[in-house]
Sequence to fold (214 residues):
Amino acid sequence: MLAAQLSPFARGRAGTAPVGRTVAWVALAYGTLGAFGAIAALALGNDPLTTEPWLPVDGAFAACLSLGLGLGVAVATIAATRAMVARFSWARQLHGDLRPVVQGADNTMILLTAIASGVGEEIFFRGLLVPWLGVWISSLAFGLLHQVRGRARWAWAAWAAIMGVLFALLFVLTGHLEGAILAHVVINTANLRFLRDHMGPAPKARALGGLLGR
Fold:
């Protein structure tokens, strides 16, 4: 959904689409999603920002643990993204297919979009759907809704589903949504900038025409 929201605004930096208007539309879309998630969760009798934790933690310690684990997930995911683009052909293909989506986006647009998407999606998919549908079904829905046109569609959806599981586990393990929001925002900010600024390495030559070692 993040790529889909950005794609109509992927213009040249000279600017046929003003950043202010772009950010306003993105914030409105994700704000609506988050508001709907919060209202629906409350209507179901759930707090969209907290749940009963799987771990024996509560209070300020649980919130701090959530934030700490979220930061760890963000750092590991950002590092994994770069390693996969450097190592695997499918990741390079995905990088290349998604890159046009953010061409022309400036740092302000990327940061505000990352914040809006991180908060809105986490309240909806984790705060609303995890207590209602569980970790696995909510993560599958998260993955299926993260699609773009082209060859990257299912690879991107699968990656989003995996990230959905990680975000959901951050929520249910600690009972706090703060860590999942932090991880989501940091990952989106760093990876959108990486996507915009790096073309990705050229495919590596493979021994014996590719028969050995991918």
Notes: The chain has one domain: 19-202. The radius of gyration is 18 Å. The chain has a mean pLDDT of 85. DSSP finds eight helices and no strands in the chain.
